[in-house]
Amino acid sequence: MIDNLATGVEGFTSNTFLVQGDRTVLIDAGNGFDVVDAISAHTDDLDAVVLTHTHPDHVGNLAAVTDAFDVDVWGFDPTVEGVDRELADEATVTLGDHEYTALHTPGHKNDHICLYGADPGILFAGDLVFENGGFGRTDLEEGDRDLLIESIDRVLDVVSADLGQLHVGHGPSVTTDPYESIKLAYRAARM
Q1: Would you tell me how many other CB atoms lie within 10 Å of the CB of residue 18?
Q2: What is the distance between the alpha carbons of residues 27 and 24, in angstroms, rounded to a whole number?
Q3: Neighbouring residues of 180: CB distance < 8 A, sequence distance ≥ 6
Q4: Which H or E run contains 92?
Q5: Which residues are CB-neighbours of 177 under 8 A, at least 6 positions away?
Q6: Distances in whole angstroms, Cα of residue 57 to Cα of each of 33, 118, 163, 190
Q7: Residue 174: how many other CB atoms lie within 10 Å
Q8: How many other C-beta atoms can be found within 10 angstroms of the C-beta atom of residue 97?
């Protein structure tokens, strides 16, 4: 089961996905809302936090989550404050009931990863791509448009064309032809 705990939150935050199953994991902590209460409304136990990247809107609530649930935080770069464990490129991690592969996808931020579950047909894309061909900003520190385009191309090569769900860092999740949204983002980023 996947729930976006930031649904309806007004203010500067990312989407924050609670993935429940054998291993209950929070993907991104969001910012500026009571995510601890939102988690507690669904479960008493959290096994880990996995970060798609460490921009403030994705990690602002991180300390509150780790204080409340005493969990490790996984991310691409363990030298970044708040990240306890490295989730290297092509490493696997259990989210809910399925194995996901971490794909290092820089361009928006150097430590950005996407999480792809081939069996459930799900991609957590962070701020790499969005619904209808949107793509992550490259005008922030560590942003690089060429790297972003390479990262989107990599995701297109790895992810199945019959992808079932695309969960993004901002805006709605995509469940109708999500692969097409990634292709559109690739085209738009190249313009």
Answers
A1: 21
A2: 10
A3: none
A4: strand 92-95
A5: none
A6: 11, 28, 27, 26
A7: 23
A8: 14
The widest CA-to-CA distance across the chain, in whole angstroms, is 47
> What band does 10 get if pLDDT is binned at 50, 70 and 90?
confident
- Please, what are the domains in the chain? 2-190 (3.60.15.10)
Helix and strand tally (H, E) in the chain?
A: 5, 11
Please tell me the distance from the alpha carbon of residue 41 to that of residue 93, in angstroms, as a whole number: 24
HSE on the CB side for 59, CA within 13 Å?
16
Q: Which two structure tokens, joined as six digits, stand for 157? A: 């090569």
Phi, psi of 148 (to 5 degrees): -60, -45
Residue 185 and residue 151: Cα distance in Å, rounded?
A: 11
Q: Residue 125 has which token pair?
A: 């894309």
Q: Per residue in 76-98, pLDDT tens?
A: 999 999 999 999 999 999 999 99
**Per the confidence metrics, is the pTM higher than 0.85?**
yes
DSSP letter assigned to residue 13: -
Is there a contact between 48 and 25 (Cβ–Cβ < 8 Å)? Answer: yes
